[in-house]
Amino acid sequence: MQTYEALIPRRERDLFEEALAMQSGYLLDFSDKSFGDFFSEEIGIDPDALPGKSLFSAYGTSKAKRLRSFIAKAQPHLVARVLRALWEEREHSMLAGSGPREGQLKEVYFRIVARFEGEEQSIDSTGIEAFEANETLQELVAAIRRDLDAGRPNAGLDRLHTYCMKRFASLVSKHGGEPCDQNDALHARVGKYAKALKAERNLTEMSERIIKSSISTFEAMNDIRNNKSFAHDKEALVPMDEARFIYDSVTAVLRFLKTVDADKFED
């Protein structure tokens, strides 16, 4: 993990923290509650619960220190997204100014944002989230993200499979579809979900095709889990570049389904 001080050098740090009113431990005009609400709404991470809690604890408990920890520990694309959203919050607050000083703050601030956006990110894990208040599920999500943070996506493919098994069983249940049992393979659960969703909603032809085509993607994932993961005693794991592609493909499907079926994806 790089430090906050290394990521935002001293020559920029004072202006950056001035822009966000981080003096004396504050952050803009956030209360403790609105701080948590902001992160939950913007990136789907609760700073006060696993797995998000560990992202915010490296520097201390004030809101400014928790942001510094997040900047140091979170994936760069998430940091960039949060910083852009914080600037929007600033513009809607009493802190927004005008004149040369405001221009200087904005220039430095978005120079920092651009650096985070420019860092290579091979995997966007925002589609993997705890969708129920369940400690086992929260630990599963945390374990998947630890593998990704460590740059070892191939080590967690069995956990990604387990996550998807739980996710689609939950979605089928929320739609009142044919219940999933423990013998249903992953692609069978996705098929039940697609059937239940189609029965409940008038999907566009394009959305229906995408959802149906995803069934074969998840069917292929069964073989990955059984033959090329740590779920069984296998010597040959999926190559790293292929593991990244699998994560990207699976999480892209989850994000798409969350778009077309948002009310059932809510926690």
Helix and strand element order: HHHHHHHHHHHH
Number of domains: 2
The helix tally amounts to 12
The shape, in one word, is elongated
Instruction: Provide the β-strand percentage band.
Output: under 5%
Number of strands: 0
Report on this model:
With 267 residues, the protein is mostly helical. It has two domains: 4-118, no CATH class; 135-265. Helices cover 63% and strands 0% of the residues. The mean pLDDT is 86.
Provide tags for this entry.
267 residues, 12 helices, 0% strand, mainly alpha
Write a short abstract of this structure.
This protein is 63% helix and 0% strand. It has 267 residues and is mostly helical. The chain has 2 domains: 115 residues, no CATH class; 131 residues.
Q: How do the strands and helices of this protein lay out in sequence?
A:
Blueprint: H1 4-7, H2 10-19, H3 32-43, H4 63-73, H5 76-91, H6 100-118, H7 135-149, H8 157-175, H9 186-200, H10 205-227, H11 240-260, H12 262-265
